[in-house]
Structures are given as C-alpha cells and as structure tokens.
Amino acid sequence: MSAIERVPEPELMEDPEQAAAYAAADFSEPHQAFVEHFRRCFPAFAGGRVLDLGCGPADVTIRFARAFPGAMLEGVDGAAAMLRHGRDAVARAALSSRIALRRLRLPAAGLAGAGYDAVISNSLLHHLAEPLVLWQTVAAAAERGAPVLVMDLMRPESHEAVRQLVQLHAADAPPVLRRDFSHSLLAAYRAEEVREQLRVAALAHLRVEVVSDRHWLAWGHV
Fold first, then answer.
1. How far apart are CA 23 and CA 98, in angstroms?
2. 147: β partners
3. What does the mean pLDDT of the chain come to?
4. Taking 60 as the threshold, does the pLDDT of residue 32 lie above it?
5. Residue 85: CB atoms within 10 Å
6. pTM of whole model > 0.90?
7. Are strands 147-153 and 118-122 parallel, antiparallel or unpaired?
C-alpha cells in the first residue's frame, strides 16, 4: 500500500486564536529534543550568530539561547500573530539582549550572504508550498561550513496512523491544536522526499534521519 498523498496547508499561521493556542501549548518534549539533537550533532559548537527560520512564538529560539550562552539569535517568521507571542516570551525570559525577532516571509533576498554561524529551523518546511525555498535560504544565509539543523513532522503512511498520532500526542490539547496537528501531519514531507529535495538543492551531503514516531531531522555543514 502506498503512502497517503501530501495535502498542503496555509503557509502562515495568522489566526489570533490559532497563534494563541500554539503559543500556550506544551511542546517541551519535541522542542527540547530539537536542542539536544543540535548538541549531539555539533558537539563543538560554542556560539555565534544563529538564524532560526520559522521561529513562531520563539520557544525553540529561547531554549537554544539558554543551551548555548555564546549564541546570538535572530528568529524570523512570516506570521505577525506568532511574532507578537514570541516577543512577549523573549521579554519574559529576559533574553531580549540576545534574541531579535523580525517578520520575514521566505524567500527573502535579505538573508542571502548574511554569513550566519549556524542555521536552525523547526516545523517550517511542511508549511511551504515550494520546499526548495527553505533549502535555498539555508544555503544562502549560512557561512560556508556552518552547522545546519532542520527538524519537521513526517507524513504517516495512512489516515489511521494520523488519527493514532493525534490521539497519542494531542488527546488533551484544545480542538484547534488537534485539528492543526492532523493537518500538519498530512502536509508534512517524508524522509525520502526530503532527501530528494536536498539532492535538487545541491545539499545531498546533509544527513536525514528519522528521530521519533513523527519527526525527521536533516543536519550537517553547508
């Protein structure tokens, strides 16, 4: 039986209710895992200028800043509703001196040649209608040889598998989050699709691995 087809979802999360629910949700397990994956993949990383693509309400950005005190982070996102929550969270965390958030929708020419010392992205790719936009941005924004780590959801094999994942990981979540999680799983790319995207983007040297029942990870040096 072949895997279910991808069903795209809107690129931006601008609905205030949706943004508020997402900002209030407990994503500590996958978000902290993201930071620990970076630490595992790049044990020598000590800090520098870090770009967080699709930062949303900045939970991953904040966790990364706490894990790497030598890092200065710039988070970009296309959704103003998400960034409002992100800026509040950064202020509450007392990290405004090390984290800057700005509204930017990919593709963005302003990131090309910026020479970031690392580029990270969590759960942005499945929102993009054209996935190469992300990989081209990563390659253009990073300093040559810089570490890159991208994590995202992985599309299940069947609609029943989608239902089971929503029940397992979001049974107690508000309806808007259960709906969004289901839609995001259907919009997600599978590991083999990501490998093909990387090949086309001349980034085939990046490693792709499945790291949970619903996430893949792409990482390496550009």
1. 20
2. 221
3. 95
4. yes
5. 20
6. yes
7. parallel
